[in-house]
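Section 3.1 - Work completed
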Amino acid sequence: MRALIRTGPSKSLTLTSDLPEPSSSDSSQSYIIRTHATALTRDELTWPEPLSIDVPIPGFDLAGTIISAPTTASAKFKPGDEVYALTTSTWQGNAKEVSIAVENELSLKPKNMNWEEAASVPLSALSAWQALFVHGRLTPPSSEQNMKSQNSGKRVLVTAASGGVGIWGVQLAHLAGAEVVGTCGSSNVEFVKGLGADVALDYTETNLKEWVDENKDARGFDVVLDCIGGQTLEDAWKSVRKGGRVVSVAEPPDGKNPKEGLAEGVEGVWFIVEPNGGQLGEITRLIERGECKGMVDSVFSLEQWSEAFERLQGGHVKGKVVLRLDREIERH
């Protein structure tokens, strides 16, 4: 099968056409899946974990059709099911024509998304879900009005709000009933407002810390989802209310803790997203109800992998860069 392989500890990649396909004999508990699309993540070629296996492959988002399933009676999915997932159980990514996933990574693909749209969702949406509702301790969104009211009065800041994780952070925090502020470039202000942000701050014109300091009681945050790191993360610490949390997917927040000028009891959290088919199923329901959506910045064929990574690393990407694995250009 065709596959994109990391050829060593560097960022070098090679496209091959003779990688052996996985089979059900490789693991009796795994699903074999025909890969239709995978999404790429900025800086994933610097991650050490994928290099722990013999054949490292990028792309940890998966959208595809199940070819074979475990033979156990309890298997949740069956051949022919259209699924999507964040897969890290083997740390071999999905920029290959046939993939393997375990059951707790999988969810049925949203019926109202094509393959490329579905591939843009799992890693980013699960990162935002876990940042807000596991580590940020907000109550997840629900159709129940009283569930939303549990977050009433809570204020959430999402930095890089037009990026892969930021898009989901804004939407999910809004759906959960929190007041949401997102930072972005000037060209994305209206886009971020359209996602549900109550305020979209143009970082080229507005200094976050100064903006908050103008009225910290009203503008301070209970949860910060930081997707940038650096000076932005340091400023975020001073923008949090008493007892609030700085949750970072960019870098460990404690290293940017300014120590002084902080509200009482502010905590920093660093985490790495984990596959979770149950949480992805909740996200699927929100998507199918039309309450939130993924965002595809651009789509490339597997043979165009070099252009795809150039687009990704160039910055100012709106949403996800996706690789299409189907040999024929066909959309579902």
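Second construct:
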Amino acid sequence: MPSLATGEIRTEAKRSYMSIIGLYLFIYYGTGSFFPLMAQYYQSIGLSGTQIGTISSITPIISIFAQPIWGMLCDKLRVRRPILMLALLASSAISLLFTQISTFAWVVVVFSLFSLFQCAVIPINDSIALNFAKQQNMQFGNLRLWGSVGYAIATLITGYAIRSWGPHAIFFFFAAATVLAIVFLRGLSDEGDNVKVNGNIFNGIGELVRMPRFVLFLMGAFFIFGPINANNTWFSLYYEHIGGTVVGIGVAFLLFAGSEAPFMKVAGYFARRWGLETTILIAAVASGIRWFWYSTAPTTTMVIAMFFIQGLSVGFYLATAAQFVRENTPSSLQVTALTLYSSMGLGLGSMFCNLVGGVIKDTYGILHTYTFFGIATMIGLVPLLLIKLRTKAKITEMQ
């Protein structure tokens, strides 16, 4: 009987593992079909840089308010799967509405509704994966890397689809990928975290913002994660500006996102060797250097040839940042903490960088937008350095 029980546990763990891989693969396939190539859709309906920046800021603005609420609901109700399924179903259906509109006002309305549900997807999915990784004593990066694989494949395939069928292909590919993610989600059990949950869901935020390390990390995410996400909005226009094509954009994103997977695979090794704080700092420095280099208008050949910079910067950052949040916040507030982190990076940081980046593009050109991204990232190094110094001081005191 004991061996049978062990076999059942292993079978359940394997099924959950495959379900999480499928979730990451298709959630990020949808994301890769949508966000990096939306500028092509905006351009096709005649929107200006400022209008594109404004629309791109909708998801961040809504995320600031909606993501913590989604997270607190998950922590309070101790469920993940039903809420994630709702968010996936709603965002899939709403995405198809873009095929029926072509004015700035209607895009704002539909994008706002879309963002309300879409902003819940990644933090909740990350929470499920982090919880599973902790239970199975494995590195989160080994799960998260499948998102980069899906994202990479999607940008290439959707880039070709846009050339053949036009920008509306974006929304059909997104909806199809999201439905496939739901199929994998149905095979995943939702066991909760088996921890005591605060009685008042709003008490969690108060507890988190009283943690200096977490607050400093959020400040860093604002200035570092913001440009990373804003690049998904502006890169296609930037790449065309330096002489690239729409298909070339897909190839670039294939290589960029594909390079994240191996770096995520080894992120755990470097985090154990150097520490989470140092690994995150290295990723941030690489990210800042990348944006400054882009502002010098290198050739498309050089941009493609240096594709691995994305893996070093974004791959390391994404794999280690979520782990930092998990290890520096109470387990009972894990989803709330992840959604606050996402709200600062995907939310406030992206909103700030998209709005300012759009104005800079219209006034000075797209190259100066990337100069701004580089400056913002350098500012984000300051709170990360403070975290590193505080950690070093504590180690010295213990010795």
